[in-house]
Structures are given as structure tokens and as C-alpha cells.
Amino acid sequence: MRALACYGKALKLARNYPEALGNYFYLRLNACDWRDYATLRDTIIKGVASGNKGYSVLPFIAVSDSAKLQLCCARVHVSHNHPAAPTPLVTASRRQRDKIKIAYLSGDLREHAVSYLAAGLFAMHDRHRSRSTISVSPLPWGPPTSTTSLPTTT
Q1: Residues 124, 129, 135, CA angle at the centre, nearest 5°?
Q2: Which residues of 81-97 are buried (b: 16+ CB within 10 A; e: fewer)?
Q3: Which of 20, 32, 16, 33 has its CA nearest to residue 59?
Q4: pTM
Q5: Which of these, 40, 48, 50, lies nearest to 11 by C-alpha position?
Q6: 2, 55, 64, 80 — which has fewest CB within 10 A?
Q7: C-alpha dihedral, 132 to 135 to 136 to 138, nearest 10°
Q8: Which structural domains are found in the chain, ordered by start?
Q9: Exposed (0-12), middle (13-18) or buried (19+): which is 109, by Cβ within 10 Å?
Q10: Band (129; pLDDT cuts 50, 70, 90)
């Protein structure tokens, strides 16, 4: 409830602060506070439809079930928060290879349900398909754990 009060104060200072309005509305929904629901919802939807930046993508899903508006919100959010790099990150030329390399990067490739489910996926890769071979590399990512190996399929 403290976060809700802080967002309320922020909105009093800057009513047109989209991120605060979206998060304030989302917190109110989670607290089952339905006062001014329609007004706040319509304000947020109009803001997203007009391309205002600052609305968070996941909370917006609770505001509107319109795929078009959700896509609009996501595009504005990404273009504002994650602009394209001015120069390519990799400038090396592509080499022709006989081997296709596939890497799976996950923080759950350890003693975790995801790694047990993914072990079957890794085993299903046809490593000798046509003339090409496939190199599959599951790469654990994250803090060190007591388990160092991935589960295997039988």
C-alpha cells in the first residue's frame, strides 16, 4: 500500500506521467480498489493509442485485451527503452559453415524442472540430418549451484 501512496503523490505532482499512471492503476487493481476504474482505464488506453511512451507492457495487459493496443504499447516501450544500436554489434562477415550451431541459454539449466524438460528437447535434435551436422550446447547461466551437470534422458 505504500507504493500505491507514493504513486498517488507522484501523480499529484505530474498528472501526465504515463509510467506512474499505469503502475498506479495496476497496483490499485491488485489491491481490488475499483474507484475511478473506468476513467483511469480509458485514460491509459487513450495514452497508449496515441503513442505516449512510459506505459509498462505487462501491466497494460490487465488494462486492455486488445492485441492491437498491446502491440502498440510493446512497440512504443521497446523503441523508447531499448533503441536500436547505432552501429551493428558484430561487423565480421558470415562464413559458410557445414555445422549449424544451436545454443540454449538459461538460468534454469541446473537441478530444476526446466532442465529436466529441456533434456528431452536437446536429445531430439537430429545431429546427422542431411549433409549438415548440428552442434547443440545447453549453457547454464547464473550464480553457481551445487549441481554442475544437466539431467540426461534415457
Answers
A1: 65
A2: eeeeeeeeeeeeeeeee
A3: 20
A4: 0.57
A5: 40
A6: 2
A7: -160
A8: 2-81 (1.25.40), 92-154 (no CATH)
A9: buried
A10: low
